[in-house]
Amino acid sequence: MPKELSPNIQDYLKRIYELTRDGGLATTSELADLMAISPASVTNMLQKLSNTEPPYLTYTKHQGVRLTEAGRRAALKILRRHRLLEEFLVAKLGYTWDEVHAEAEILEHAMSPLLEERMDAVLGHPEFDPHGDPIPDSNLDIPVIQQTSLANLKIDQGGKILRVPHEDPQVLRYLGKCGMRPGVEIKLLSRTPYDQTMRLLIVETGEEVVIGPKLGGQITVRVG
Amino acid sequence: MPKELSPNIQDYLKRIYELTRDGGLATTSELADLMAISPASVTNMLQKLSNTEPPYLTYTKHQGVRLTEAGRRAALKILRRHRLLEEFLVAKLGYTWDEVHAEAEILEHAMSPLLEERMDAVLGHPEFDPHGDPIPDSNLDIPVIQQTSLANLKIDQGGKILRVPHEDPQVLRYLGKCGMRPGVEIKLLSRTPYDQTMRLLIVETGEEVVIGPKLGGQITVRVG
DNA sequence: ACTATTATTTAGGCTTACCTAAAAGTAGTC
DNA sequence: GACTACTTTTAGGTAAGCCTAAATAATAGT
After folding, report:
1. Which of A44, A203, A220, B208 has a Cα at 20 to 30 A from A196?
2. Number of compact structural domains in chain A
């Protein structure tokens, strides 16, 4: 019986999950940065979490960490709550997509299994949150969709925006105002040679949008 | 600018508020009992909370505590969140009145002012929670209603149940099954001489209910 | 009024999770 | 291969909030 993890630990696991989605390792300083705490504190916690039974992560000194299966499941559990909450806040309480992240970040740790279940039910078991991020189902399975980064689009290629996985409210408000929301059809008009800045057409409105490569690189689309 | 109080401290203040609603003092052991922690821990916290600037309570060694105005306001803030949450869970997420207390107890500490405001709005600024307890408004004013304990009813006197302020799910399920819910009209049929057990008529259904003096003493009614 | 019981406080410790400062390891450049 | 710069770890410390055990104050019974 895995005992109840502290909110702190849940946060560490969630962050590590996010940092290692590419299959690589997460480093001490990446984590320290992301969580706005000192590297020393991170080292301590990583050591602790790799010496539990079962261990939540595999940790190699000076190299980095990755989650074990136990760690991954714990991370997905929180991620499910987080994304369900975001969807709930938008769908039922009139939040905008830039307001939900910070709120969910706190509420996710105060959420009982019953509440999770009820929210899931009244939302009709949603598959995606307001940013288009997939919500793991109650078995922690994640819907898989064929997707690619906006940065991979070819000139004149169109697609539908799937995910805008930013957390910064300012960024989200800006993107929202441009029409860069999940579900929106876009087409790549041109790309500047040197810095890869993209000029896009919002198909519905005919509006044109300019997006830098850094912002655009994280937005994912389904081409076609 | 009063700094952000920790969940722990908020809980202490809320408990003390509840214990001193009769105007008296709360004692160390009452608090220790209620919070299921040792008396020594309570003493520590009481000393701490009476030495802040501003102090949240006035504490006299070996006598007891009561809240200051700052303490009372902090307590009401939490109480508002707690009761709004209870109402929200019942009205919007299909909870029963015996399930909401424990859930709200945790969520109340994770609730932002924005969330409080949105819940209040979608509920239409409710005045009472599912147990009939009054919800302080956003100025922390509490609706006043003329009420008396069920224990004060005279034989053959009728009234409408206003509050059933129990927390124990078992008790609430029992009372609910009997029809003892806020809003229900009842009439006192008889009272046993020695222990004051009450026999009541649920007016709507014509059903009869027997309630001990301890349970009944906490239920409040509006007579007439 | 005195003693037994009960309630409360003091004293000293533990755990979690953070910190800073100093030591040690890793990597890139000459 | 050695020097510098950077990252990471170790060591030692702090604050919150809980604990137990021992000391002290209040209360109640005779």
Report:
1. A203
2. 2
For residue B31, what are the domain limits?
7-67
Whether nucleic acid strand C comes within 7 Å of the CB of B19, the answer is no
Tell me the C-alpha distance between A40 and A29, whole Å: 9
CB contact under 8 Å between A95 and B118, yes or no, is yes
- Round to a whole number and report the distance in Å from the CA of A8 to the C1' of D14: 19
Q: How far is B43 from chain A (nearest CA, A)?
A: 26
C-alpha closest to that of B152 among B125, B100, B178, B188: B188
Q: Residue A208: give its domain's CATH number.
A: 2.30.30.90
| Residue B188 lies inside a defined structural domain of this protein | yes
Distance from CA of A122 to the nearest CA of B (A): 7
Angle at Cα A178 formed by Cα A174 and Cα A179, nearest 5°? 120
- How far is Cα B222 from Cα B120, in angstroms, rounded to an integer? 26
ipTM: 0.86
Give the one of B99, B102, B115 whose C-beta lies nearest to A103's C-beta: B115
In tens, the pLDDT along B86-132 reads 999 999 999 999 999 999 999 999 999 999 999 999 999 999 999 99
Q: Are B188 and B157 in contact (CB under 8 A)?
A: yes
Nucleotides of C under 7 A from a protein CB: 7-12, 16-22, 25-26
The pTM is what?
A: 0.87
Q: Identify all chain B residues contacting A110, using CB atoms and an 8 Å cutoff.
A: 106-107, 109-110
Of the candidates A94, A95, A119, which has its C-beta nearest B93's C-beta? Answer: A119
Query: CA nearest A18: which of A61, A76, A62?
Result: A76
Sheet holding B198-202, edge to edge: B148-149, B220-223, B158-163, B185-191, B198-202, B207-211
